[in-house]
Amino acid sequence: MKKWLKISFSLFLITILIIPLAACGKDEVTKVRIGEVTRSIFYAPQYVAIEKGFFEEEGLDVQLTTTAGGDKTMTALLSDGIDVALVGSETSIYVSAQGANDPVINFAQLTQTDGTFLVAREKIDNFSWDLLKDSTFLGQRKGGMPQMAGEFALKKHGIDPQKDLNLIQNVDFANIAPAFSSGTGEFVQLFEPTASVFEKEGIGHIVASFGVESGHLPYTSFMTKESFIKDNSDTVEKFTRAIYKAQQWVDSHTAKETADVIKGYFDNTDLDIIEMSVERYKNQDSFATDPILDQEEWDNLQNIMDEAGELPQRADYDSLVNTSIAKKVMEE
């Protein structure tokens, strides 16, 4: 009898242990590998989504890698090294022009303006774009969105980048700031927080914003292969919902509050610089407040690419942009 009671008690213990485990199985965690083109305060909402637990709330375990460059990011996506890419939307157009069988689809926009600033070596009290003529300008890599948006802004103000400037474009992205710091160029095109750091240290002075000059465009978007959306529609929806929550959070909180959340991603940058950078981007509406990439922005992107001579061919909006997921998330 005692032996039977022991067996019954053991079975009871096993049963009560199995039930919670079975319940946990219903809430499976899905891993999603993101490749970001660079580490930037410009991508603040993405870091907020991670740090505030918005991805975790959706049952997603996000693994973030900095893939350093548009070409490398797209290669990682196409070769299944990552699931989702955070990169300029122009890369999806380049892939499409090469006749990809599995096109890359933009499904959630993160930033909606250029993120660079014009930095002058000398302090200029009354800046005019004409001051750039005949100067040495340290620009961004040819074919990338910063360079194209930069040239668009220059032409808008009557400056031919190839004729009116001593234009330097053969410096790698990672070495542009050090090159300017060491004495190369009278003007340079820089992202935050480098622009604010240079201003604080007296290396340069911010005189204009390329984001303001070039208008709204899908500067950086989350994208993935069409097959991934088809096979993992629920995951993509959860991902987009987390990003939307983060976009709304950043929009409704101060730059200081956002800086406090994302500071761990920028260990070598002072908190006041992070806050200043977030404030600049908020003031010029660089952070998209929702994940929808609209037709007007898409057209502006292609117009800028065309003006720079980098548009291989016009890409159909409906073929490379999926707004149905974002719209569903926003309607909830």
TrEMBL record:
Keywords: Signal. Its main location: periplasm. It is found in: Periplasm. The keyword Signal applies. The keyword Cytoplasm does not apply. Pfam families: NMT1_2 (PF13379). Belongs to the bacterial solute-binding protein SsuA/TauA family. This is NitT/TauT family transport system substrate-binding protein.
